[in-house]
Design a protein that fits this description.
Length: about 160
């Protein structure tokens, strides 16, 4: 299983003048290097999770992180989040794609949002798909790594219903 630790030490580019920061770089020339950095972090987080399941997912959270899930209480702290993330990639595949992001002016905190899908099987072996929206808040840690401070999700309709235009 790949560890997210090495990937988390990426350094974002220095802040630049504000620009529209959502969409595709081919259709939105205002996509900033800071937003691209957050997309790269999110992609590494998603790839680690796809490969390593819940155990890999848990490695990306800060000591004081919080997760908010649809219909459940907040889970507070890295250890509690990691203890709850027990799924294997064979039993559950969680995939997500950022649709937008913003970086703080100091380039030490940012957030992404987008759509997620979770694929598993019920007790009879029938496919089960969950879909929804998510938001990830990222924060640069004292050691220079980037960790998730807040992961929030809610179940919702299929991805293409809610795209920004």
């Amino acid at each position: 299983m790949a560890s997210g630790a090495a990937a988390q030490t990426l350094e974002p580019p220095k802040p630049q003048a504000a620009a529209a920061a959502n969409g595709n770089p081919l259709t939105n020339p205002g996509l900033t290097p800071e937003v691209e950095f957050l997309y790269q972090l999110e992609a590494k987080f998603a790839a680690d999770t796809a490969k390593g399941g819940g155990k890999a997912f848990g490695t990306w959270f800060a000591p004081d992180a919080v997760t908010l899930e649809n219909g459940g209480p907040p889970v507070v702290g890295h250890d509690a989040i990691a203890a709850k993330a027990t799924w294997t990639p064979e039993a559950y595949q969680l995939k997500w794609t950022p649709e937008g992001a913003r970086m703080s002016p100091q380039a030490d905190m940012g957030f992404t949002w987008g759509h997620y899908e979770g694929d598993s099987k019920d007790a009879q072996g029938n496919p089960v798909k969950q879909t929804g929206r998510y938001m990830t808040v990222w924060k640069k840690q004292p050691d220079g790594s980037w960790k998730v401070e807040l992961d929030a999700s809610n179940e919702g309709p299929a991805e293409d219903c809610c795209r920004l235009k």
